[in-house]
Design goal:
With about 375 residues, the protein is of the alpha+beta class. α7 runs antiparallel to α8, α7 packs parallel to α9 and α8 packs antiparallel against α9. The chain starts with 7 loop residues before the first helix and ends with a helix. The protein is built from 11 helices and 10 strands.
Length: about 375
């Protein structure tokens, strides 16, 4: 089915992204995977190409274009290239809105130019060793010391944790407030008492640096409070729909690309003297996956359009996230199976897609949390 959500400008941008990937990412990606981290030069190259801060107003160095469909193009092309390590989606679509919608004029002028140029890599620190999706379990605390906050605690599984120059930290500022006693504090590289732990050894997305962060009596200036005091819960809920859409967009793009790869493979690979594609079981597998991808793509494109128009609610974003990521997981498993022993070899794209994509049903809110959100909306 022909997609109708993009126009000529979006497709021209797609070509720009593909050129960037071919020149600045893919030639270096295997080395990044071995190193467990991408080059900072890649971030600066993305900034020079205008891929960072697409929605940031031009006066702060951004693209000044809030059309979410450009973010969708980025997600699709990076996924098809098999290059999740350069976490531009996290930077643009998750952290960017916090800085642009909550930042004071002084904060925007201080942080956004570097954000858009690639000189300033960002991260958001919510998850803790004892608190994942449950914000009420957060123990990292910030004590009001008059002219600064005194921040103590630790975070884990933080994407961009090693490279990040600017970290938005979710911290408890009113002990008795529960989830409604949390605030967002921005910690900058070099702050005394701010330490990074090990670059975590993951089963996939190895070039995407993911780290533990430690805050030991870190003095955070009062002017680094982002948004309202004790307002983090509302701020986080406001931006989660876009975060989940970003994950869902990558998920359906991954499923579609795996289907393309596998369709080509079964046409060429022979068993019992004929191509695998001649076996009825294989044809049924391909037919089922193609249908599931087509149906999911239709729903996702509707969600992308609604979000671009400011009409997507958190319930439908949750539906998109859990359905698309679970589909990605199923398709990756079935495509690997159809590749046989070759599917288990790291040199084959399907093998890396299997491990890179497994996190999709976990971060941004697990499948179980997504179902709970949807169920509550329907049943109270």
């Amino acid at each position: 089915m022909q997609r109708r959500i993009y126009d000529a400008d979006h497709e021209a941008f797609r070509e720009t992204v593909r050129t960037f990937l071919a020149k600045e990412v893919l030639p270096h990606y295997e080395q990044w995977e071995k190193d467990g981290i991408v080059s900072r030069e890649a971030w600066r190259a993305a900034g020079r190409q205008g891929l960072l801060g697409l929605a940031v107003p031009e006066e702060y160095g951004g693209g000044g274009n809030p059309d979410f469909r450009y973010a969708a193009v980025l997600a699709e092309e990076f996924t098809r290239a098999g290059a999740p390590g350069l976490a531009i989606g996290l930077h643009n679509d998750i952290i960017g809105p916090y800085l642009t919608s909550l930042g004071t004029e002084e904060q925007k002028r201080r942080w956004l130019p570097g954000f858009c140029s690639g000189e300033t890599v960002t991260a958001i620190a919510m998850t803790e060793p004892g608190a994942g999706s449950d914000l009420q379990g957060i123990r990292t605390s910030a004590e009001d010391r008059g002219d600064h906050w005194l921040l103590n605690g630790s975070k884990t599984f933080i994407s961009n944790g090693i490279l990040a120059d600017l970290v938005i930290v979710v911290a408890k500022t009113t002990p008795e407030g529960g989830a409604h006693g949390l605030s967002l504090l921005v910690v900058e590289r070099g702050a005394e008492g701010f330490e990074r732990g090990r670059n975590l050894d993951k089963i996939g997305q190895k070039s995407q640096d993911t780290a533990e962060l430690f805050f030991n009596d870190v003095r955070v200036p009062k002017e680094n409070l982002l948004g309202e005091l004790n307002g983090a819960f509302v701020h986080l809920m406001t931006n989660l729909a876009q975060e989940r859409m970003g994950i869902a967009m990558a998920a359906i793009a991954a499923a579609e690309h795996l289907l393309e790869i596998t369709t080509t493979y079964v046409k060429e690979r022979e068993a019992f003297g004929r191509p695998l594609a001649k076996l009825q079981h294989v044809r049924f597998e391909i037919a089922e996956m193609a249908t599931e991808c087509a149906v999911t793509r239709s729903f996702l494109d509707r969600c992308i359009t609604d979000h671009a128009n400011g009409e997507l609610d958190h319930v439908h974003a949750s539906m998109a996230k859990w359905w698309a990521t679970e589909l990605q997981k199923r398709v990756a498993d079935r495509c690997l199976q159809l590749h046989g022993g070759y599917g288990y070899m790291s040199e084959y794209r399907v093998a890396r897609a299997f491990t890179d994509g497994r996190i999709q049903t976990i971060y941004g809110g697990t499948t179980e949390i997504m179902k709970e959100i949807i169920g509550r909306s329907l049943l109270g």
